[in-house]
Design a protein that fits this description.
Structural class of chain B: alpha/beta
Oligomer: heterodimer
Largest interface: A-B, 30 and 26 residues
Number of strands of chain A: 7
Helix content of chain A: over 70%
Distance between the termini of chain B: 28 Å
Radius of gyration of chain A: 64 Å
Number of helices of chain B: 5
């Protein structure tokens, strides 16, 4: 699925890495935020504690001041006056710090209460100063009255304020510690949830990446290995992931192309090697037969010259004539061989380009050219009137017709008047040509050997053994095939060959 | 008057498609009177028919089995090597010496001939004096000096 949404492996890998990085950033940021919140709550908690601390000190210093006033006024201990004044300043200081701590902690009601009670605090401070100053001036009566006033009128609201403030402290502290523990719990849960979510996402993406990248690579590797070991491309061509278009699919396509090309090249190479091998065998056979068959008449010529000398010495006229006849015949054989070989070597290079040929017209032309031989052998030749046209080299096909006709006449059999039928039928893109004769026929054992170079079935009938080799060569050069249908034993034979249709 | 061994006429089978060469061989042998009878066949099929007494060669008196065979390699219908193979795989014929007499001096032919157990391989010399000398030597060696197995 992922390979359809994101067609590129690069994008897929990018997404994978991106999601992982975003996940970790998210975790870090959320952790930072939560810790920051907790930290602030802690600070607030500390401020509250500090505030309480100042409140206690304030409370303590006020109580002590009361005790000192009692000692000065009731027990006449004037010596503690400086101490009282110092304590008086301290308590004011504690109050001020309590007040600013409330401000820092943002405790509006605390601050409000403090601000409201500030005049009272200053009044008490002023009262204490006044008591101290009255005592110093020995106005004990006034001092006592002032003390009474302090106790009855100033202290009760102060005590109320302190009590309320302490209650508020306790309430706030409890409140904030609940807040902190709630924050801690939220932080832990959030981190765990975010972590699990990201891990899940990473696993899902990893599985998807694995499916869309790693598995296809493995498959590609298997297929490449398979191709390397067997040279078969079949598995490779059937890639099931053809609905996606990522780099791997392109790679596979390229590999398929390469494999097909390699395969085609291999086939071409094999064909070429086979072709060259055939040509080489043909050439070897050619040089072998040439050396053998050309040497043969030379042996004859030399031999009969030797015999001729002897026969001349013996004066045997009959033998002399025979010897000369053998020598002449051998030289003629050699000349014919050389000519036929030249002809055969020319066939390899097609002299004229292929053209549309009427087989009927061409056959009639060849028959005209062979009139003398035909009349001599009293041969009857029937040519089908409307043979299909072929696409071939006219001169060469003429040679084929001539050779087959001459062959049929040559092997017509003793005292038998040759009767030859030439016909043709079209079969798809080929034309099948038939030369049917009533001659001696060819034993099925020799149907292949008659086409071999210098191969002859009967050494008593003149010939070089090149004619049918030439015919076969010409037909094969035109991409056709040639074969014989004959049962032998005088039942005649049919030479069949195919040529490209026009 | 030919030389005989134990009253039995010496028979040579000449398997040669070239009529002129056959005559050269025959006349050389006539001159030296080595063989009593020279039987000549001009293609591979006739040679096999002769040796295995088939076709027109069923008459054992008219076509006696040879004491020595001269075999050309390039023959119409059945190749000389095939004739040689059939001789050397036949229990009745394998002891008959076969001398390959051919124009080919190709290594492949020589190797194949010996692979098929030819007893000797000689190339027809171009020079006629040498040809005659060779025929004489072959006749004396294979028909007279060489002892054939009688079992």
């Amino acid at each position: 699925m992922i390979d359809r949404i994101l067609p590129s492996i690069g994008t897929r890998l990018g997404l994978f890495v991106g999601v992982m990085m975003a996940g970790f950033v998210l975790i870090i940021v959320s952790v930072l935020i939560l810790f920051n919140l907790i930290d602030e709550s802690n600070k607030k908690f500390n401020l509250l504690q500090e505030q309480e601390h100042f409140l206690q000190h304030f409370n303590g210093s006020v109580l002590e001041s009361i005790i000192m006033i009692d000692r000065i006024i009731l027990e006449d201990q004037g010596s503690v006056i400086p101490e009282l004044l110092a304590l008086n300043e301290d308590s004011l200081g504690y109050f001020g710090r309590y007040q600013s701590a409330a401000q820092f902690a943002g405790l509006e009601h605390d601050r409000y209460a403090a601000d409201e009670n500030e005049p009272l605090i200053f009044r008490i401070r002023a009262d204490i100063f006044e008591i101290a100053s009255l005592y110093r001036n020995h106005q004990l009566q006034q001092a006592r009255e002032k003390r009474l006033e302090l106790m009855e009128r100033r202290l009760p609201p102060l005590v109320t304020f302190i009590r309320n403030a302490r209650e508020l402290r306790d309430f706030d502290l409890e409140d904030i510690s609940i807040q902190i523990s709630e924050l801690r719990r939220t932080a832990t849960i959030t981190i765990i949830v975010v972590f699990i979510a990201i891990m899940l996402l990473v696993v899902i993406i990893a599985v998807a990446v694995n499916r869309s990248i790693v598995k296809p690579i493995g498959r590609l590797k298997y297929v490449v290995d398979h191709f390397m070991s067997t040279g078969q491309t079949t598995d490779l061509l059937a890639n099931p992931r053809d609905n996606s278009k990522d780099e791997l699919v392109h790679l596979t396509e390229s590999f398929n192309k390469m494999a097909r090309q390699l395969f085609d090249n291999k086939i071409q190479q094999d064909e070429l090697i086979e072709d060259l091998g055939q040509k080489n065998t043909e050439l070897e056979r050619f040089t072998y037969t040439v050396s053998h068959d050309l040497k043969s008449p030379l042996v004859t010529v030399n031999g009969f010259i030797g015999l001729l000398e002897k026969d001349i010495a013996a004066g045997d006229e009959t033998r002399i004539r025979e010897d000369i006849q053998k020598i002449t015949s051998a030289t003629k054989t050699m000349a014919a061989l050389l000519e036929d070989l030249l002809e055969l070597s020319r066939v390899g290079q097609q002299v004229s380009p292929s053209q549309e040929i009427s087989l009927t017209e061409l056959s009639e032309g060849v028959v005209d050219a062979l009139q003398i031989s035909i009349r001599e052998h009293k041969a009857e030749i029937n040519i089908q009137a409307d043979m299909p046209a072929v696409f071939a080299d006219k001169l060469r096909i003429g040679e084929v017709i001539q050779n087959l006709l001459e062959n049929a006449i040559k092997f017509s059999g003793e005292g038998n008047e040759p009767h030859i039928e030439i016909s043709a039928t079209r079969e798809q893109d080929k034309v099948l040509v038939l030369f049917k004769d009533n001659g001696i026929g060819i034993d099925p054992r020799y149907h292949d050997t008659v086409f071999g170079l210098f191969d002859r079935l009967d050494s008593n009938i003149p010939g070089t053994g090149v004619g049918l080799a030439l015919v076969k060569r010409i037909v094969e050069i035109h991409g056709g095939q040639i074969w014989i249908e004959s049962t032998g034993n005088g039942q005649g034979s049919t030479f069949c060959f195919s040529l490209p249709a026009a | 008057m030919g030389i005989t061994t134990g009253g039995e006429p010496l028979v040579l089978l000449l398997i040669e498609d070239n009529a002129a060469h056959a005559e050269m061989v025959k006349r050389s042998f006539e001159q030296h009177k080595v063989a009593n009878v020279i039987q000549h066949v001009d293609d591979g099929q006739k040679a096999l028919d002769y040796l295995f007494r088939e076709g027109e060669y069923t008459d054992a008196d008219k076509y006696p089995l040879p004491h020595c065979i001269l075999l050309d390699l390039r023959l119409p219908k059945v190749d000389g090597l095939e004739v040689l193979r059939q001789i050397k795989t036949s229990d009745d014929l394998l002891k008959t010496p076969v001398v390959v007499l051919t124009t080919s001096a190709a290594d492949k032919d020589i190797a194949m001939a010996y692979e098929y157990h030819a007893n000797s391989y000689v190339v027809k010399p171009l020079d006629f004096a040498k040809f005659e000398a060779l025929m004489e030597d072959l006749g004396y060696y294979w028909m007279i000096w060489n002892k054939n197995s009688r079992i």
